[in-house]
Write a structure and sequence with these properties.
The protein has 271 residues and is α/β, with parallel strands linked by helices. The chain has a domain at 66-77 and 114-265: P-loop containing nucleotide triphosphate hydrolases (Rossmann fold), CATH 3.40.50. It is built from nine helices and ten strands. The protein has helices at residues 79-86, 108-114, 131-141, 146-159, 175-187, 205-217, 229-235, 253-257, 260-265; strands at residues 40-48, 54-63, 68-72, 93-98, 101-102, 115-118, 193-197, 221-225, 238-243, 246-252. α3 crosses α4. The radius of gyration is 18 Å and the shape is globular. The protein starts with 39 loop residues before the first strand and ends in a 6-residue tail after the last helix. The chain binds adenosine-5'-diphosphate.
Amino acid sequence: MNDVGQKTKEGRDTLTVVKPVSFVVSGGNGNHPDHSVPTLLVDDLSFSYPDGQVALRDVSLQISQGEKVALVGPNGAGKSTLMLHLNGILGGQGQIQVAGLPVTKPNLPTIRAKVGLVFQNPDDQLFSPTVFDDVAFGPLHMGLPEDEVRTRVARALKQVGMSNYADRLSHHLSVGEKKRAAIATVLSMDPEILILDEPSAGLDPRARRALITQLHELPLTMLVSTHDIRMVNEIFPRTVIMDEGQIVADGPTDQLMNDVGLLEAHGLERP
Ligand code: ADP
């Protein structure tokens, strides 16, 4: 269990974020609003697993407030590894900032409240008896007063279309409901950015549709890894393609999805 809010079974706190902070806000790809401080800044991030497997090579990425960005690429491209860096579960060489705050060990409790990371398997995030308890977990551990916790839980459940589920048993939910409940567990923290790892994987068409509708309607900054290219086309204006630990393309989704050569080169299907 980690310090605050971010519930995860992977409790690694290793962090060796190194370089001094230097903002370079200009030079984005021009397809998003110009805010002076990006919601997410990743600069020259590299990481190898302890067995020597290189997973990230010089990854740089900026996401502005309100942007919804899809992260696609073949298995093993480094998508999950990148996501695990964004709230300091893994720590590589390079720098990461969330809303201007560097991801460093002393900042981890604050960072984990700002970065709502949802794992592919919702069972990694739901372990309380009821949905209410799961969604209240983060705010309670932040020390918020009971009224505020209740308000946040109600709002988060509403945001995922589960207002009537507070008293349901988490482990009895369907996979689609579990996925949305897992998202609610981080929404209750009022995050700056929502990071989702393959949210639509394993869902039947109706559950997938419900999830897409919720993600589309959520007014939040998002980075979402997925193999669901149709979902990407539908709700993500910007796409980042990773392969072999590198970002190989970053731009407007409609442009990238029409580049057959690019898609084929990185094992992606045309929608
Ligand atoms: P993706 O999420 O795009 O499928 P990952 O981030 O899971 O990619 O993996 C990136 C690379 O890191 C792959 O080569 C993968 O085999 C390797 N990898 C992932 N997890 C570990 C681990 N715990 N130990 C060693 N290598 C790993």
